[in-house]
């Protein structure tokens, strides 16, 4: 590499490092706001977050950034730069192009509407008043349609939105995999409803003091390999994991004293996200690549731990006795088998985040189909509540009584995040596929769970997923880890086998 | 005001608001680092703090700032702008001039040495090895002398350093007040040493569980009027208060289970700092004026609560019973009078931060005299340990056995903060003077304490001190609140009366 190129690369990396400093400050301020910032400082804090976010946005679309991209994207540069820098330039270029194509004024209007929409949505959900939220939702859709116009699309307009969260994902692929999944799940859900072998679940709702739940989940996080020297666990209302910097990846959770599953499985889920970010290669520090590959890959890690580890019988062979120590009155009279069946109860429900692992994908498909229809101009925003309810009846056999427990339940649309929901189901399919592939290297998977030795599992995930950060596209990661592209069959097999066994269906 | 001026003012205020956003981010990151950030993220966090601090520094010395100052400092501008904007321009100009006069290269070298010096000092203190720290301390002094050269001085070189922390303060004033103070305290300390009526203090060191100490101090903070909706209390190693934004002023404290005084009086002290910042006029939000007037004024507020409120007998008339509820075994056999005398025990000691309120000013005077002598080129840095020990013998009758409990005990010099120490003693004098003045409006002061009604006291401090933020110079605040300039006699009288009574000296 010649001296000029070397010095441009150095400047570019310093510029990106500065962007990462802003990102760190914003992440910490956000975390703080959600975990314990005093009420009276919140408004000012939000302004500060938005001010520093704007600085970050300005840097990503600056002339300086354009100049770096220009100088570092040509053939000669590509040949002389490291794989890491090439990939970084690629990611910066993608972001630059996306952001730069939208006229600044229009983007500003959009951000303002977004900010208001979330507040209005909160109130609308509380009052179960869709009409109140409608004008905002219409505007958010309107702007996103305009953005698609600026960004362009190949086959489906909605593909462009999907690509933001899951690079490379398309309607064509999703229609296919969701179609197969639906075909298998819907009859299974019906069989379960008719089953005479339902688990008893009363004991799940016994009072389990928060402090004891916390002690137990801390032990489980430790078992999973979550590094407490590079993170911490705090309380919040809406749980999340956040990578503030590579040595500081935090988890937040919430507790329901009358349903320990919320904190236990919730923390394990967020723990899966956090372990991902804790194990990204240190070579990617100080770059945008030191992050999850996509929303779907991120979700594959949280769901791997939540479903394939902590809802597995082997996991409780090891941990049920431990759980019992923290709430002896609750579990003393329960057998391990009863416990296992109870925590895997499946029952159609209205609220996505409370759904069990079998019916969960149906909640996602409903949202996917509605989003797709909106952006392909097949339905109107105002018709969403009715269509939502019809689909819930059709897929799950339940109908929301109010919009609060229907179309208004999730925040995503209020934030303008159209195209995000499918990531949840994709993550689930990825996780099942990774599990199947992992079994080839770790045939003793079940036994490891029974022994409480989760280290080889974490190491396999680091080797095949974590360490790459954003160095690879999501489907590249799946391909190299499993030897094939996205294949929904693994999830179908998993769900079928597991639930037929639990409900003793022949 | 004409339209151009109006629009320049608007831009200037937006620029300053942006600076405040950086300041908020840096303050939160610092707080987080000191209260619970995971170990492995600390190095990156420090880099991020220093990167955003540099941005802030760059803004304060930018050409943009110079242009605003130029356009808003002329006579015509001054006449048309609000008092608030005028004062803000003045403060920005002062900062600009100070920072801009130092050649950038030299400042950068200095900051680097500073960063290393703190780490070296930590190790040197641990090993009690002054020689190890000496070259760094010499460099820090060298640079500060050069800076004084750039900044200029009137009477004493050291005045320029004092002015950074306490605008308007001079060697001339300090020599006078410290002289008087010393003349009164030194003989009093000797009399106390000879007194036959010393308090019993054994019970102070009984085990008092941390959780119980915390519950008690939270009650006291509430009594003081600390607003928990605009702040929070956390654990740390070195306690501090920090105004992250005007609605978010946090306190940190530490606990010694074998000496409850550390947390109780420490939290009250930091609470005094925090109450100050919580009550600055909301009109000053988003400007550099939304801050304490000076280090000395800030300290006057913390010491007011610590010494004049919480070491007062009336305060314990109300709170001793409450304290007793949290540690009955410890205090059941103790009378209020025994308790009051014990917590006000005075005894010469080696460590400043552990000193009682009578001997504390002597610790400050020693540092003041040594700093003054260094910057007036009367002594050399290498001779500090010996001179330190001699002065401790002379003023307090004790001699450090090691430099760790002598010249190496405080971090200030390692941070290059020369001229800072006198603020502690100034704050004390201000507090005594404010107390005397408060008595004119609130003659029932003692009774309020006995009733646990601290509201009128807090309101008086807000009315006379807090609300002004940096709108006034420290001595202006003292003048308007007390009707006279700095007068050390109030502190002398307070200490003399109080300690002669406690030790029953005739």
From TrEMBL, chains A, B:
<keyword id="KW-0121">Carboxypeptidase</keyword>
<comment type="function">
    <text>Broad specificity carboxypetidase that releases amino acids sequentially from the C-terminus, including neutral, aromatic, polar and basic residues.</text>
</comment>
<keyword id="KW-0482">Metalloprotease</keyword>
<keyword id="KW-0479">Metal-binding</keyword>
<keyword id="KW-0645">Protease</keyword>
<feature type="binding site">
    <location>
        <position position="273"/>
    </location>
    <ligand>
        <name>Zn(2+)</name>
    </ligand>
</feature>
<keyword id="KW-0862">Zinc</keyword>
<keyword id="KW-0378">Hydrolase</keyword>
<dbReference type="GO" id="GO:0006508">
    <property type="term" value="P:proteolysis"/>
</dbReference>
<feature type="binding site">
    <location>
        <position position="299"/>
    </location>
    <ligand>
        <name>Zn(2+)</name>
    </ligand>
</feature>
<protein>
    <recommendedName>
        <fullName>Metal-dependent carboxypeptidase</fullName>
        <ecNumber>3.4.17.19</ecNumber>
    </recommendedName>
</protein>
<dbReference type="Pfam" id="PF02074">
    <property type="entry name" value="Peptidase_M32"/>
</dbReference>
<feature type="binding site">
    <location>
        <position position="269"/>
    </location>
    <ligand>
        <name>Zn(2+)</name>
    </ligand>
</feature>
<dbReference type="InterPro" id="IPR001333">
    <property type="entry name" value="Peptidase_M32_Taq"/>
</dbReference>
<dbReference type="GO" id="GO:0008270">
    <property type="term" value="F:zinc ion binding"/>
</dbReference>
<dbReference type="GO" id="GO:0004181">
    <property type="term" value="F:metallocarboxypeptidase activity"/>
</dbReference>
<feature type="active site" description="Proton donor/acceptor">
    <location>
        <position position="270"/>
    </location>
</feature>
<comment type="similarity">
    <text>Belongs to the peptidase M32 family.</text>
</comment>
